[in-house]
Protein backbone atom coordinates (compact mmCIF):
# COMPACT_ATOMS: atom_id res chain seq x y z
CA UNK A 1 0.00 0.00 0.00
CA UNK A 2 1.34 3.41 -0.99
CA UNK A 3 0.38 6.21 1.40
CA UNK A 4 1.12 9.85 0.66
CA UNK A 5 1.63 11.36 4.10
CA UNK A 6 1.32 15.03 3.14
CA UNK A 7 -1.43 16.47 0.92
CA UNK A 8 -3.59 19.58 1.03
CA UNK A 9 -7.25 19.72 0.00
CA UNK A 10 -10.00 22.25 0.55
CA UNK A 11 -13.69 22.53 -0.34
CA UNK A 12 -13.89 23.47 -4.02
CA UNK A 13 -14.63 27.17 -3.55
CA UNK A 14 -11.93 27.56 -0.92
CA UNK A 15 -9.41 25.67 -3.06
CA UNK A 16 -9.88 28.21 -5.83
CA UNK A 17 -9.16 31.04 -3.41
CA UNK A 18 -6.29 29.25 -1.67
CA UNK A 19 -4.48 28.68 -4.96
CA UNK A 20 -5.58 31.88 -6.69
CA UNK A 21 -2.14 33.53 -6.53
CA UNK A 22 0.46 31.31 -8.20
CA UNK A 23 3.85 31.11 -6.53
CA UNK A 24 6.76 32.50 -8.48
CA UNK A 25 8.89 29.64 -7.15
CA UNK A 26 6.65 26.58 -7.06
CA UNK A 27 4.63 24.97 -9.83
CA UNK A 28 1.17 23.64 -9.00
CA UNK A 29 0.43 19.98 -9.76
CA UNK A 30 -3.29 20.05 -9.02
CA UNK A 31 -6.21 22.23 -8.09
CA UNK A 32 -6.42 21.46 -4.36
CA UNK A 33 -9.85 19.83 -4.59
CA UNK A 34 -10.81 16.39 -3.34
CA UNK A 35 -11.67 15.22 -6.86
CA UNK A 36 -8.38 16.59 -8.13
CA UNK A 37 -6.45 14.68 -5.49
CA UNK A 38 -8.39 11.48 -6.23
CA UNK A 39 -7.48 11.73 -9.92
CA UNK A 40 -3.83 12.39 -9.08
CA UNK A 41 -3.75 9.39 -6.73
CA UNK A 42 -5.14 7.08 -9.39
CA UNK A 43 -2.60 8.26 -11.95
CA UNK A 44 0.31 7.99 -9.50
CA UNK A 45 -0.60 4.66 -7.92
CA UNK A 46 -1.27 6.11 -4.45
CA UNK A 47 -3.72 4.07 -2.37
CA UNK A 48 -4.39 6.55 0.43
CA UNK A 49 -3.48 10.18 1.10
CA UNK A 50 -3.21 11.94 4.44
CA UNK A 51 -5.22 15.15 4.05
CA UNK A 52 -3.98 17.94 6.28
CA UNK A 53 -6.42 20.43 7.74
CA UNK A 54 -4.96 23.83 8.63
CA UNK A 55 -7.05 26.26 10.67
CA UNK A 56 -5.34 29.61 10.18
CA UNK A 57 -7.44 31.24 12.90
CA UNK A 58 -9.17 29.69 15.93
CA UNK A 59 -12.64 30.22 14.48
CA UNK A 60 -11.90 27.92 11.52
CA UNK A 61 -10.47 24.98 13.44
CA UNK A 62 -13.66 22.98 13.96
CA UNK A 63 -14.93 23.56 10.41
CA UNK A 64 -11.59 22.38 8.97
CA UNK A 65 -11.66 19.29 11.18
CA UNK A 66 -15.19 18.42 10.13
CA UNK A 67 -14.24 18.79 6.46
CA UNK A 68 -11.34 16.32 6.56
CA UNK A 69 -13.22 14.02 8.95
CA UNK A 70 -16.03 13.61 6.43
CA UNK A 71 -13.79 12.59 3.52
CA UNK A 72 -13.99 9.05 2.12
CA UNK A 73 -11.94 7.03 4.61
CA UNK A 74 -11.18 4.39 2.00
CA UNK A 75 -8.95 6.84 0.14
CA UNK A 76 -8.26 9.73 2.47
CA UNK A 77 -6.80 9.82 5.98
CA UNK A 78 -7.87 12.88 8.00
CA UNK A 79 -5.28 14.90 9.89
CA UNK A 80 -6.91 17.60 11.96
CA UNK A 81 -5.89 21.05 13.04
CA UNK A 82 -5.49 22.83 16.38
CA UNK A 83 -4.80 26.40 17.43
CA UNK A 84 -3.39 27.85 20.68
CA UNK A 85 -6.03 30.57 20.43
CA UNK A 86 -8.55 27.96 21.60
CA UNK A 87 -8.65 26.25 25.01
CA UNK A 88 -6.90 22.90 25.03
CA UNK A 89 -10.07 20.94 25.72
CA UNK A 90 -11.91 22.67 22.88
CA UNK A 91 -9.14 21.61 20.50
CA UNK A 92 -9.26 18.04 21.80
CA UNK A 93 -13.04 17.78 21.53
CA UNK A 94 -12.94 19.01 17.92
CA UNK A 95 -10.29 16.43 16.97
CA UNK A 96 -12.18 13.58 18.61
CA UNK A 97 -15.55 14.54 17.11
CA UNK A 98 -14.03 14.61 13.64
CA UNK A 99 -12.36 11.22 14.07
CA UNK A 100 -8.98 12.39 12.78
CA UNK A 101 -5.90 10.14 12.81
CA UNK A 102 -3.26 12.82 13.39
CA UNK A 103 -2.81 16.55 13.93
CA UNK A 104 -1.20 18.98 11.49
CA UNK A 105 0.63 22.02 12.86
CA UNK A 106 1.79 24.74 10.45
CA UNK A 107 3.16 27.72 12.38
CA UNK A 108 3.87 29.78 9.25
CA UNK A 109 0.26 29.86 8.12
CA UNK A 110 -1.35 29.70 11.55
CA UNK A 111 0.41 32.75 12.94
CA UNK A 112 2.25 31.34 15.94
CA UNK A 113 5.69 29.96 16.70
CA UNK A 114 6.56 26.36 17.42
CA UNK A 115 7.69 27.38 20.90
CA UNK A 116 4.38 29.13 21.73
CA UNK A 117 3.43 28.21 25.33
CA UNK A 118 -0.19 27.64 24.29
CA UNK A 119 0.92 25.16 21.65
CA UNK A 120 3.00 23.33 24.25
CA UNK A 121 -0.14 22.70 26.28
CA UNK A 122 -1.84 21.22 23.21
CA UNK A 123 1.16 19.01 22.37
CA UNK A 124 1.15 17.73 25.92
CA UNK A 125 -2.56 16.85 25.57
CA UNK A 126 -2.25 15.02 22.25
CA UNK A 127 0.85 12.95 23.04
CA UNK A 128 -0.12 9.32 23.27
CA UNK A 129 -3.37 9.92 21.35
CA UNK A 130 -2.59 11.72 18.07
CA UNK A 131 0.66 11.85 16.09
CA UNK A 132 1.71 15.41 15.25
CA UNK A 133 2.69 16.33 11.69
CA UNK A 134 4.68 19.54 11.99
CA UNK A 135 5.91 21.85 9.25
CA UNK A 136 9.54 22.72 9.85
CA UNK A 137 11.57 25.30 7.94
CA UNK A 138 10.73 27.94 5.39
CA UNK A 139 7.56 28.29 3.35
CA UNK A 140 6.90 30.26 0.19
CA UNK A 141 8.78 33.34 -0.87
CA UNK A 142 7.30 35.40 1.99
CA UNK A 143 7.91 32.91 4.83
CA UNK A 144 11.47 32.61 6.09
CA UNK A 145 10.70 29.88 8.61
CA UNK A 146 11.94 31.39 11.86
CA UNK A 147 8.65 30.44 13.53
CA UNK A 148 9.45 26.75 13.12
CA UNK A 149 13.17 26.07 12.91
CA UNK A 150 14.91 22.70 13.18
CA UNK A 151 16.16 23.72 16.62
CA UNK A 152 12.59 24.39 17.76
CA UNK A 153 11.53 20.98 16.45
CA UNK A 154 14.42 19.37 18.34
CA UNK A 155 13.23 21.04 21.54
CA UNK A 156 9.66 19.81 20.98
CA UNK A 157 10.94 16.25 20.53
CA UNK A 158 12.92 16.43 23.76
CA UNK A 159 10.14 18.05 25.76
CA UNK A 160 7.41 15.61 24.66
CA UNK A 161 9.00 12.17 24.44
CA UNK A 162 5.64 10.35 24.19
CA UNK A 163 4.57 12.37 21.16
CA UNK A 164 4.73 10.53 17.85
CA UNK A 165 6.22 13.33 15.80
CA UNK A 166 6.47 13.59 12.02
CA UNK A 167 8.78 16.42 10.97
CA UNK A 168 7.89 17.61 7.48
CA UNK A 169 10.50 18.27 4.80
CA UNK A 170 13.24 16.17 6.44
CA UNK A 171 13.00 18.45 9.47
CA UNK A 172 13.78 21.75 7.76
CA UNK A 173 12.51 22.97 4.38
CA UNK A 174 15.25 25.01 2.75
CA UNK A 175 17.22 24.55 5.96
CA UNK A 176 18.64 21.13 5.21
CA UNK A 177 22.05 21.75 6.77
CA UNK A 178 20.43 22.84 10.02
CA UNK A 179 18.09 19.85 9.88
CA UNK A 180 21.02 17.48 9.38
CA UNK A 181 22.67 18.95 12.48
CA UNK A 182 19.66 19.33 14.76
CA UNK A 183 16.93 16.88 13.70
CA UNK A 184 18.43 13.91 11.85
CA UNK A 185 18.97 11.12 14.36
CA UNK A 186 16.30 12.26 16.82
CA UNK A 187 13.52 9.78 17.78
CA UNK A 188 11.08 11.36 15.31
CA UNK A 189 9.77 10.48 11.86
CA UNK A 190 10.85 12.51 8.85
CA UNK A 191 8.65 13.02 5.82
CA UNK A 192 10.21 13.21 2.36
CA UNK A 193 8.28 16.18 0.96
CA UNK A 194 10.47 18.80 -0.72
CA UNK A 195 8.61 20.92 -3.30
CA UNK A 196 8.97 21.17 -6.22
CA UNK A 197 10.33 17.65 -5.86
CA UNK A 198 12.67 15.39 -3.94
CA UNK A 199 14.64 14.99 -7.16
CA UNK A 200 15.82 18.60 -6.82
CA UNK A 201 18.10 17.49 -3.96
CA UNK A 202 21.36 15.61 -4.43
CA UNK A 203 20.55 11.89 -4.50
CA UNK A 204 23.60 10.79 -2.49
CA UNK A 205 22.89 13.41 0.17
CA UNK A 206 19.27 12.31 0.51
CA UNK A 207 20.24 8.67 0.72
CA UNK A 208 22.91 9.34 3.37
CA UNK A 209 20.53 11.49 5.42
CA UNK A 210 17.85 8.80 5.38
CA UNK A 211 20.27 6.04 6.32
CA UNK A 212 21.74 8.08 9.17
CA UNK A 213 18.29 8.87 10.54
CA UNK A 214 17.06 5.28 10.18
CA UNK A 215 14.94 4.05 7.28
CA UNK A 216 12.31 2.77 9.71
CA UNK A 217 11.55 6.40 10.62
CA UNK A 218 11.20 7.83 7.09
CA UNK A 219 7.72 8.28 5.58
CA UNK A 220 6.78 9.15 2.02
CA UNK A 221 5.11 12.51 1.45
CA UNK A 222 4.59 14.71 -1.60
CA UNK A 223 3.01 18.00 -0.40
CA UNK A 224 0.45 17.84 -3.23
CA UNK A 225 -0.53 20.08 -5.01
CA UNK A 226 2.97 21.56 -4.71
CA UNK A 227 4.60 18.39 -6.07
CA UNK A 228 3.67 15.42 -8.25
CA UNK A 229 3.18 12.24 -6.16
CA UNK A 230 4.01 10.01 -9.13
CA UNK A 231 7.37 11.69 -9.65
CA UNK A 232 8.07 11.57 -5.91
CA UNK A 233 7.38 7.83 -5.76
CA UNK A 234 9.76 7.27 -8.67
CA UNK A 235 12.46 9.29 -6.89
CA UNK A 236 12.10 7.24 -3.70
CA UNK A 237 12.20 4.02 -5.69
CA UNK A 238 15.34 5.26 -7.43
CA UNK A 239 17.29 5.76 -4.21
CA UNK A 240 18.44 2.16 -4.33
CA UNK A 241 17.14 0.82 -1.03
CA UNK A 242 15.95 -2.77 -0.67
CA UNK A 243 12.41 -3.65 -1.75
CA UNK A 244 11.39 -4.12 1.89
CA UNK A 245 12.79 -0.76 2.97
CA UNK A 246 11.23 1.00 -0.02
CA UNK A 247 7.83 -0.51 0.70
CA UNK A 248 8.08 0.61 4.34
CA UNK A 249 8.98 4.16 3.33
CA UNK A 250 6.19 4.34 0.75
CA UNK A 251 3.47 3.22 3.13
CA UNK A 252 4.20 0.47 5.60
CA UNK A 253 5.63 2.64 8.34
CA UNK A 254 2.89 5.25 8.08
CA UNK A 255 0.18 2.58 8.04
CA UNK A 256 1.51 1.25 11.32
CA UNK A 257 1.92 4.69 12.86
CA UNK A 258 -1.60 5.82 11.96
CA UNK A 259 -3.28 2.48 12.64
CA UNK A 260 -4.34 1.85 9.03
CA UNK A 261 -5.17 -1.57 7.66
* Mean pLDDT metric: 96
Instruction: Write down the overall geometry.
Output: globular
Low-confidence stretches: none
Roughly how many Å is the radius of gyration? Answer: 17 Å
The largest sheet has its strands arranged as: 1-2-3-4-5-6-7-8
Number of strands: 8
Class by SSE composition: alpha/beta
Order of helices and strands: EHHEHEHEHHEHEHEHEHH
The separation of the N and C termini measures 9 Å
Can you summarize the main beta sheet?
8 strands, parallel
Strand-residue fraction? 5-15%
Number of helices: 11
Oligomerization: single chain
- Which percent range fits the helix content? 40-55%
Topology summary:
Layout: E1 3-7, H1 12-18, H2 34-44, E2 48-52, H3 61-69, E3 76-81, H4 88-98, E4 102-105, H5 107-110, H6 117-126, E5 132-134, H7 150-159, E6 165-167, H8 176-182, E7 189-191, H9 203-213, E8 218-219, H10 229-237, H11 243-258
Parallel strand pairs: 1-2, 2-3, 3-4, 4-5, 5-6, 6-7, 7-8
Helix pairs in contact: 2-10, 3-4
What does this structure look like?
This protein is of the alpha/beta class and 261 residues long. It has helices at residues 12-18, 34-44, 61-69, 88-98, 107-110, 117-126, 150-159, 176-182, 203-213, 229-237, 243-258, and strands at 3-7, 48-52, 76-81, 102-105, 132-134, 165-167, 189-191, 218-219. Strands 1-2-3-4-5-6-7-8 form an eight-stranded parallel beta sheet. Strand 5, helix 7 (150-159) and strand 6 (165-167) form a beta-alpha-beta unit. Helix 2 (34-44) packs parallel to helix 10 (229-237) and helix 3 runs parallel beside helix 4 (88-98).
